[in-house]
Specification:
alpha+beta, ADP-ribosylation fold, 4-stranded antiparallel sheet, 3-stranded antiparallel sheet, 34% strand, globular
Length: 120
Amino acid sequence: MIYHVVPRDHWDISVDRPYEPASLAAEGFVHCSPDEPTTLAVVNAFYSDAPRPLLVLVLDEELLTARLEWEEALPEPPPGVAADVAFPHVYGPLNRDAVQRILEVQWDAEGRAADLTIYA
Protein backbone atom coordinates (compact mmCIF):
# COMPACT_ATOMS: atom_id res chain seq x y z
CA MET A 1 0.00 0.00 0.00
CA ILE A 2 1.07 3.57 -0.70
CA TYR A 3 -0.33 6.83 0.68
CA HIS A 4 -1.50 10.09 -0.93
CA VAL A 5 -2.46 13.23 1.03
CA VAL A 6 -5.45 15.28 -0.15
CA PRO A 7 -7.76 17.92 1.35
CA ARG A 8 -11.26 16.45 1.58
CA ASP A 9 -12.74 19.19 -0.62
CA HIS A 10 -10.35 18.25 -3.43
CA TRP A 11 -11.12 14.53 -3.11
CA ASP A 12 -14.86 15.17 -3.23
CA ILE A 13 -14.69 16.88 -6.66
CA SER A 14 -15.72 14.77 -9.68
CA VAL A 15 -16.22 11.55 -7.75
CA ASP A 16 -17.21 9.78 -10.97
CA ARG A 17 -13.76 10.32 -12.53
CA PRO A 18 -10.16 9.43 -11.61
CA TYR A 19 -8.55 11.86 -9.20
CA GLU A 20 -6.03 14.30 -10.72
CA PRO A 21 -4.24 16.51 -8.18
CA ALA A 22 -2.52 19.70 -9.31
CA SER A 23 0.90 18.03 -9.08
CA LEU A 24 0.00 15.76 -11.99
CA ALA A 25 -0.30 18.73 -14.38
CA ALA A 26 2.54 20.72 -12.78
CA GLU A 27 5.14 17.97 -12.27
CA GLY A 28 3.86 15.05 -14.33
CA PHE A 29 3.18 12.74 -11.40
CA VAL A 30 1.18 12.29 -8.21
CA HIS A 31 3.23 12.44 -5.00
CA CYS A 32 2.75 9.49 -2.65
CA SER A 33 4.47 8.15 0.46
CA PRO A 34 5.60 4.62 1.27
CA ASP A 35 4.18 4.32 4.80
CA GLU A 36 2.27 6.08 7.57
CA PRO A 37 5.27 7.60 9.44
CA THR A 38 6.61 9.09 6.20
CA THR A 39 3.13 10.38 5.36
CA LEU A 40 2.95 12.20 8.72
CA ALA A 41 6.38 13.74 8.05
CA VAL A 42 5.19 14.89 4.61
CA VAL A 43 2.05 16.42 6.12
CA ASN A 44 4.09 18.29 8.71
CA ALA A 45 6.55 19.55 6.09
CA PHE A 46 4.15 20.54 3.32
CA TYR A 47 0.50 20.54 4.47
CA SER A 48 0.36 22.46 7.75
CA ASP A 49 -1.69 25.24 6.11
CA ALA A 50 -3.78 22.99 3.84
CA PRO A 51 -7.58 23.07 4.15
CA ARG A 52 -8.92 20.60 6.68
CA PRO A 53 -9.97 17.91 7.10
CA LEU A 54 -6.91 16.45 5.47
CA LEU A 55 -7.33 12.93 4.15
CA VAL A 56 -4.87 10.21 3.24
CA LEU A 57 -5.79 7.80 0.47
CA VAL A 58 -4.41 4.31 1.03
CA LEU A 59 -3.79 2.94 -2.45
CA ASP A 60 -3.19 -0.63 -3.53
CA GLU A 61 -0.37 -0.14 -6.02
CA GLU A 62 -1.34 -3.39 -7.77
CA LEU A 63 -4.71 -1.83 -8.69
CA LEU A 64 -3.35 1.45 -10.08
CA THR A 65 -3.96 1.90 -13.79
CA ALA A 66 -1.17 4.50 -14.12
CA ARG A 67 2.56 3.74 -14.03
CA LEU A 68 4.18 3.74 -10.58
CA GLU A 69 7.87 4.58 -10.06
CA TRP A 70 9.84 4.57 -6.80
CA GLU A 71 12.17 7.57 -6.77
CA GLU A 72 14.37 9.53 -4.40
CA ALA A 73 13.05 12.72 -2.84
CA LEU A 74 14.47 15.76 -4.60
CA PRO A 75 16.02 17.99 -3.54
CA GLU A 76 15.84 16.15 -0.20
CA PRO A 77 13.33 14.22 1.92
CA PRO A 78 11.21 16.08 4.46
CA PRO A 79 12.55 16.44 8.02
CA GLY A 80 12.40 13.17 9.91
CA VAL A 81 12.66 10.97 6.79
CA ALA A 82 15.91 9.14 6.06
CA ALA A 83 17.80 10.09 2.90
CA ASP A 84 17.53 6.56 1.49
CA VAL A 85 13.71 6.42 1.58
CA ALA A 86 12.23 6.07 -1.91
CA PHE A 87 8.93 7.77 -2.69
CA PRO A 88 6.22 6.30 -4.93
CA HIS A 89 5.26 8.60 -7.81
CA VAL A 90 2.20 7.77 -9.92
CA TYR A 91 2.50 8.97 -13.52
CA GLY A 92 -1.19 9.44 -14.23
CA PRO A 93 -4.54 9.98 -12.51
CA LEU A 94 -5.46 7.91 -9.46
CA ASN A 95 -8.24 5.49 -10.34
CA ARG A 96 -10.65 5.51 -7.43
CA ASP A 97 -11.00 1.73 -7.26
CA ALA A 98 -7.33 1.54 -6.18
CA VAL A 99 -8.29 3.34 -2.93
CA GLN A 100 -8.56 0.67 -0.26
CA ARG A 101 -9.05 2.94 2.76
CA ILE A 102 -9.31 6.61 3.54
CA LEU A 103 -7.63 7.93 6.66
CA GLU A 104 -7.90 11.34 8.31
CA VAL A 105 -4.98 13.28 9.73
CA GLN A 106 -5.28 13.96 13.46
CA TRP A 107 -3.52 17.04 14.80
CA ASP A 108 -1.88 17.57 18.20
CA ALA A 109 -2.18 20.66 20.39
CA GLU A 110 0.80 22.29 18.63
CA GLY A 111 -0.85 21.89 15.22
CA ARG A 112 1.36 19.04 14.02
CA ALA A 113 0.09 15.91 12.31
CA ALA A 114 0.25 13.25 15.01
CA ASP A 115 -1.80 10.27 13.82
CA LEU A 116 -3.93 8.81 11.05
CA THR A 117 -7.36 7.40 11.85
CA ILE A 118 -10.09 5.80 9.76
CA TYR A 119 -12.13 8.46 8.01
CA ALA A 120 -15.84 8.07 8.68
